[in-house]
Amino acid sequence: VQLQAFGGGLVQAGESLTLSCTSSGRTYGTYGIGWFRQAPGKEREFIGTISWNADKTYYADSEKGRYTISRDIAKNTVYLQMNSLKPEDTAVYYCAARKWDVGDYDFWGQGTLVTVSS
Questions:
Q1: Helix (H, G, I), strand (E, B) or coil at 118
Q2: Which long-range contacts (CB under 8 A, 24 or more apart) does 13-17 make?
Q3: What's the pLDDT band for 63 if we cut at 50, 70, 90?
Q4: Considering only CA atoms, which of 1, 17, 21 is closest in space to residue 111?
């Protein structure tokens, strides 16, 4: 499955931004989708994930409350809504897919850059 993440850009601290992860593949609906980010000079970190049928979400403890992941199955799109953005949220954000929510994330999108200015 090929993924495409988009929606990044430059925002002011305190603002909100929603990223999208989409795929044209017919099997997109069988993949759980995770969101990750990588800030300059830092390791990639996990943000959260949504199950293949959108009935479960899970967030890293550090991201609970400000981030919300949702899924529009009909549109083959998963969203990452980010609120109250901070400069330290500046990173390249990636979405990734794993079949039936099992195992490793085998497919990755190209990433979209989010820059939060103070």
A1: coil
A2: 13/85, 13/86, 13/87, 13/116, 13/117, 13/118, 14/84, 14/85, 15/85, 15/116, 16/81, 16/82, 16/83, 16/84, 16/85, 17/81, 17/82, 17/85, 17/114
A3: low
A4: 21
